[in-house]
Design goal:
The structure is a single chain. By secondary structure, the chain is of the alpha+beta class. It has 19 helices and 22 strands. It has 4 domains: 228 residues, 2-Layer Sandwich (Heat Shock Protein 90); 141 residues, Ribosomal Protein S5, domain 2, CATH 3.30.230.80; 81 residues, Rossmann fold, CATH 3.40.50.11260; 134 residues, Heat shock protein 90, C-terminal domain (Four Helix Bundle (Hemerythrin (Met), subunit A), Up-down Bundle), CATH 1.20.120.790. 35% of the residues lie in helices and 21% in strands. It has an 8-stranded mixed sheet with strand order 5-4-3-6-2-1-7-8, covered by helices on one side. Strands 15-14-17-16-19-18 form a 6-stranded mixed sheet, with helices on both faces. β11 and β12 form a beta hairpin. The longest helix is centred in the middle third of the chain and has 24 residues.
Length: 644
């Protein structure tokens, strides 16, 4: 292995004088400047590109050995070395791959956007073993973002001479024949001087290199080695430490997702998840997929057991890590997940995607769309399986991420409601637990035509709503909705398996027999003038006042007419807009309650006093619904007057 002791000019001992400086092809100056300043948005990418090129060189040599039985290589010795010379500000990337001769250096490095790896992939596209990463021929030039000068020393397999390619940028390059003992390639980067804005010497720091290898190149199939400093106890000492230098492998090489599922333990999955995604709790489910076909990819996805602290903040960014043959291309590929599954963590590895020239972003690609669709199906099926076979886990999941599923139903005018409705669960008054809509429909009472629901801040508050009484007396189940999104979701769904949703607080709710309807109509007709007077006394706060037989013990309740319920009014008006939405409210008075006799008497004897009662009844009904009273001082004075 090359060490700092022999990284000297004698390593590049020339047997010939410099050849005349050559200019880059392909309008070199403009193109190279564009690559350095525009194509790559992140300077640290250069290390990923050089390590990927080194991996490609090793792949090519291995493939050559597979196709030519006379070639004998020792795979145990294949490696990529990173060598740091902090004093001279030099970084070296070395591999013992196939190497390049003079013609290939001229063609690959002298002509920008010419890729030997791309040609190799095209020539061997039917061979699954040829997992070559590079394809554009520009990755090497990303090193000029951090380098003021680059030297490439290379000797091709089965050739006697080595060649040195040198360049300081767009002005051109030289190629010189030199001695080189071993096959392979060494790229020597002379780092730029530090500035106020950029500290290029960071790329010589041990922790920086280790972090970049871990981030971008952890799963390259060949060991990436570097000399590091470690602290350890001195021999024979119990408390005295010494710093020693040793060469270690920086990357883990074999991605978990490329292993056979039968060879992976649950602990390995859990440890991978907690380490990679910085979670303290193991995931609820693991989805490990290996797809071969028109589009081939491997994926390893996780359904977390809880939401991260920033999940419901606007700055949260969804997406899966995207790899190509073990090289990280995107840290968060948003296109792979729909918004309603944004909680999923994981990785996808495919060599079939069309990347842009910098390999930092994806081009519009039908392969990506295909992968995204199959991943969505996998996630959906896994959630359904959890719902059916691990209900406690599913309730835990839904507590954490149910709002995201509901938003998926509601968003885009319900475009995805049919996909997601089977994943919804709501609290059942009968079961006193969460159930699916399918469970509700399958347990309907005889002659029950609707799915009934009630909304409120908590389950306990909903239980005490007067409107719940009549429905529960019929032995009908009621879904208790406590999430601010619930009613919007229900409205978008409209119905489930042919059964319409009905709010128990809807003024149109009708559970009466024919006889009960006739008796109630007569009671309202007989008291029409009194009810109209009460409505006028409330000065436009309600659209109607009527007697009702829905209530058993409660004297009064509020119902609504139209699509906007009381709870929806609360939610909409709590949003940061200037819009003030008002539900069309109806004040309903229990015809069997003794308060009705008092109202009738006051209507005949003291209408001014009746106005006071009307305001108290209306204020009471608002308080029951969790609404504020607009004039609390007035109501308090009225109550005190009536009590005195």
């Amino acid at each position: 292995m090359l060490t700092s002791a022999n990284i000297s000019i004698k390593l590049f001992n020339r047997k010939e004088e410099y050849m005349k400086k050559k200019e880059f092809k392909s309008s070199s100056k403009k193109l190279l400047n564009m690559m350095i300043n525009s194509i790559y948005t992140n300077k640290e990418i250069f290390l990923r590109e050089l390590l990927s090129n080194a991996s490609d060189a090793l792949d090519k040599l291995n493939y050559l050995a597979l196709t030519d039985g006379s070639i004998d290589i020792n795979r145990d010795e294949e490696e990529i070395d990173i060598i740091r010379d902090e004093k001279e500000r030099i970084l070296i990337i070395k591999d013992n791959g196939i190497g390049m001769n003079e013609e290939e250096l001229e063609h690959n490095l002298g002509t920008i956007a010419e890729s030997d790896s791309l040609r190799f992939k095209e020539d061997n596209k039917d061979q699954k073993s040829a997992e070559i990463i590079g394809q554009f021929g520009v990755g090497f030039y990303s090193a000029f973002m951090v380098a003021k000068k680059i030297e490439v020393l290379s000797r091709k397999y089965n050739e006697e001479s080595g060649y040195l390619w040198e360049s300081e940028g767009a002005d051109g390059y030289t190629i010189t024949k030199v001695d080189k003992k071993d096959i392979g390639t060494e790229i020597k980067i002379y780092l730029k001087d530090d500035t106020d804005d950029e500290k290029y010497s960071d790329y010589l720091e041990e922790h920086t290199i280790r972090n970049l290898v871990s981030k971008y190149s952890d799963y390259l199939r060949y060991p990436i080695k570097m000399e590091v400093s470690n602290s350890r106890l001195k021999d024979g000492s119990k408390d005295e430490y010494e710093t020693v230098k040793e060469t270690i492998t920086l990357n883990s090489m074999t991605p978990l997702w490329k292993k056979d599922k039968k060879d992976i333990t649950e602990d390995e999955y859990n440890n991978f998840y907690t380490d990679k995604f910085f979670d303290y709790e193991k995931p609820l489910r693991v989805i490990h997929t290996n797809v071969e076909g028109t589009v081939s990819y491997k994926s390893l996805m996780f359904i977390p057991s809880h939401a991260p602290f920033d999940y419901y903040y606007k700055d949260y960014k969804k997406g899966l890590e995207l790899y190509t043959n073990g090289v990280l291309i995107m840290d968060k590929c948003e296109e792979l997940l729909p918004d309603y599954y944004s909680f999923v963590k994981g990785v996808v590895d495919s060599s079939d995607l069309s990347l842009n020239i910098s390999r930092e972003t994806l081009q519009n690609d039908r392969h990506l769309v295909t992968i995204a669709k199959t991943l969505e199906t996998k996630i959906h099926n896994e959630l359904l399986d959890m719902l059916k076979n691990s209900y406690d886990d599913y309730k835990k999941f839904f507590t954490a991420f149910g709002s995201q599923i509901k938003y998926g139903v509601y968003n885009m005018y319900g475009m995805n409601k049919d996909k997601l409705k089977d994943l919804l669960i709501f609290y059942s008054a009968k079961k006193e637990d969460f159930i699916t809509l399918e469970e509700y429909v399958n347990s309907l009472e005889k002659n029950q035509e609707n799915i009934y629901y009630a909304s409120g801040e908590t389950i306990d508050k909903i239980k005490m709503l007067p409107q719940v009484e009549q429905v529960r007396n019929k032995n009908y189940d009621i879904l208790y909705l406590t999430d601010y999104l619930d009613e919007f979701v229900i409205n978008v769904l409209g119905e489930f398996n042919g059964k319409k949703f009905m709010n128990v607080s809807d003024s149109s709710l009708d559970l009466d027999t024919k006889e009960e309807k006739e008796a109630l109509k007569k009671a309202n007709d007989d008291n029409k003038e009194m009810l109209s007077f009460i409505k006028d006394a409330l000065d436009g706060e309600v659209i109607d006042v009527r007697l009702t037989n829905k209530l058993t013990n409660h004297p009064v309740c509020l119902t609504t007419d139209g699509e906007i319920s009381v709870e929806m009014q609360k939610v909409i008006n709590a949003m940061p807009t200037d819009e003030n939405v008002k539900a069309k409210m109806v004040l309903e008075i229990n015809e069997k309650h003794k308060i009705v006799d008092k109202l009738k008497k006051l209507y005949k004897e003291d209408k001014d006093e009746l106005k006071k009662y009307a305001k108290i009844l209306y204020s009471s009904s608002r308080l029951i619904e969790g609404l504020s009273v607009d004039n609390p001082t007035e109501i308090s004075n009225i109550i005190c007057d009536l009590l005195s």
